[in-house]
Specification:
heterodimer; A: alpha/beta; 7 helices; 33% helix; globular; B: Alpha-Beta Plaits; 2 domains; 3-stranded antiparallel sheet; 11 helices; elongated
């Protein structure tokens, strides 16, 4: 699903965010990427979604080497990935339905298809009945569910979750993690970037630990080491 | 093949519809931001409309003054009608002369009496008696342009006409016309500078208003990009929204301008003593396209350029 080969990112001479990282994530895996602040987790996500470009190495997603990706190819890449962020990144002036539908509307899907898919996904993430609410009328957990719903409308093979529980309380955190597990059970590969020890230890899945821009551990049934 | 073509056609139509829908949504859901942006544009359109009106008033006033000006060439006493007519023929031969009229001594006497109702002044004529007329011929000469009077004056000031024309009177005319001419030139020249400065200020205000408006919505643009929207799909609703701003600003100015000029017109009429030299209502009615449609087109183009530049910055995600 994802292959990272000798990936490096240098912001300036003093700050090398990633150093020669090589990883292989297989289809259907649920992988947690852990590490303390400044370990390079967020940089890794930015490189995978092509928000930033690496200084060296290769990133291959579904057989597509995205290193030399052109600006006009970015939408195509991002429509194949689902991404959720710590700060939800919802469009504040659009309703729940419109936020989820937007990702499909940009691709020119038919309105009837959008209506059907969005309604199904909103039900899946447990927000049925709240379609007409705006993000500021929802709790943090609900906002993250909207973000998850939006990331799923394209039926991506890969979902990248960058600190999705960072702004949530323990109950909402558990609900979001359960939702991610459910999505993974349907066949979607999930890369969960987090520094939440309880979440990682409760997953009993592969854990990649980053420290100072390098992979210091990669365990198939791992635990939070730091 | 047909299905493929239909698909493309459908996609283009649905995308255009959605771009329009997002623009309308953006406009109304960011209502106060739209109000502020439109207000700033309103100021710019109002300034330009005011400038256009002032320019019309200035032009009309100068023209009106120019039309009312002629020079009166006084002929020396005892010059015969035949000599006067010969002089008229020669002056009329100049390219600068639009019209020339002979005022007879009798007409001059009547004019004097009309212009001087005061009995004491009229008594001056009593010393001559009813039979004798102290007035001589004079010529009322009108040029096409203010600047041409100097040529006419130079012409009649020639030595060969010194036995016909009272030179000192002609020189006084030259001085007055010269002053009026320089005031007109001054107004024309500086009104262009003022117009230019106002236009520049308007352009800067509009450009920065759009930039601030886009800046406040920069996160929206970046989120759209991150969820897979193409550049055009993000940019076009913002561009269309900026055209709505231009349209509404111009419509508001139109809504206020016509009642306002109708309100002002009577004051202008009474100031110009009922001659209705300045027909502001007629000017606005006859120049709707030049004043408002052109302003909308220029403003819309300016907004499109400003929005494209402002949005481009946040599309690099």
């Amino acid at each position: 699903m994802i292959k990272l080969i000798d990936l490096s990112k240098i912001y300036n001479k003093e700050v090398q965010a990633l150093k020669d990282i090589s990883l292989h994530i297989k289809p259907g895996e649920f992988v947690s990427v852990v590490g303390q602040s400044g370990s390079g987790k967020s940089t890794l996500v930015k490189l995978i979604i092509a928000e930033e470009r690496p200084d060296a190495g290769k990133i291959i997603i579904g057989g597509w080497d995205i290193i030399g990706i052109k600006d006009r190819e970015l939408p195509t890449l991002r429509r194949q990935l689902g991404v959720i962020f710590q700060d939800f990144k919802l469009l504040p002036k659009k309703t729940v339905f419109e936020n989820v539908a937007f990702a499909m509307e940009t691709c020119g899907f038919k309105s009837s298809e959008i209506q059907k898919t969005v309604s199904q996904i909103i039900s899946l993430v447990g927000l049925k009945g709240k379609e007409d609410r705006y993000p500021d009328q929802l709790s943090g957990g609900e906002q993250q569910r909207v973000a998850i719903a939006r990331s799923l409308v394209h039926k991506p093979k890969l979902l990248i979750a960058d600190e999705p529980t960072g702004n949530l309380d323990s109950i909402n955190t558990r609900e979001i993690v359960d939702l991610l597990k459910k999505i993974n059970s349907m066949g979607t590969t999930i890369v969960l970037v987090t520094h939440n020890k309880d979440v990682v230890n409760g997953l009993h899945s592969r854990v990649i630990t980053l420290d100072n821009g390098q992979v210091i551990s990669d365990q198939s049934q791992g635990r939070y080491l730091l | 093949m047909i299905n493929h073509k239909e698909d493309i056609y459908y996609k283009i139509m649905i995308n255009l519809f959605r771009i329009f829908k997002f623009a309308v949504q953006g406009f109304f859901r960011n209502f106060w931001l739209s109000v502020v942006t439109i207000t700033m544009m309103l100021m710019a359109v109002l300034s330009v409309t005011l400038l256009v009106s002032m320019d019309y008033i200035k032009e009309t006033t100068i023209k009106s003054v120019e039309n009312q000006i002629d020079i009166l060439i006084e002929i020396k006493p005892d010059v015969s009608r035949e000599d006067v007519e010969n002089l008229v023929l020669e002056i009329d031969g100049l390219d600068d002369v639009e019209e020339i009229n002979i005022i007879s001594p009798e007409q001059n006497k009547v004019l004097f009496l009309q212009n001087n109702p005061d009995e004491k002044v009229r008594e001056v004529l009593d010393v001559y008696g009813d039979e004798e007329n102290p007035f001589s011929y004079s010529l009322a000469v009108k040029a096409y342009k203010l600047s041409q009077y100097s040529n006419i004056i130079d012409f009649v000031n020639q030595e060969k006409y010194s036995n016909l024309v009272k030179t000192s009177d002609v020189d006084t005319h030259e001085e007055i016309i010269g002053k009026i001419n320089s005031i007109a030139n001054f107004l024309n020249k500086y009104s262009w500078y003022i117009t230019g400065i106002f236009l520049l200020i308007s352009v800067i205000v509009i450009f920065n208003t759009i930039r601030i408006s886009i800046y406040t919505r920069r996160d929206e643009i970046m989120i759209m990009k991150l969820v897979g929207a193409g550049n055009a799909f993000v940019r076009l609703p913002f561009i269309l929204e900026s055209v709505f701003y231009a349209l509404i600003a111009v419509l508001i100015v139109i809504a206020f301008a016509y009642p306002l000029v109708n309100f002002i017109q009577p004051s202008l009429n009474s100031y110009f003593q009922g001659d209705q030299v300045i027909d502001l209502v007629g000017y606005f009615r006859n120049n709707f396209v030049e004043i408002f449609v052109y302003q909308f087109i220029v403003l819309a183009i300016l907004n499109i350029i400003s929005t494209s530049i402002a949005v481009r910055r946040y599309l690099r995600v």
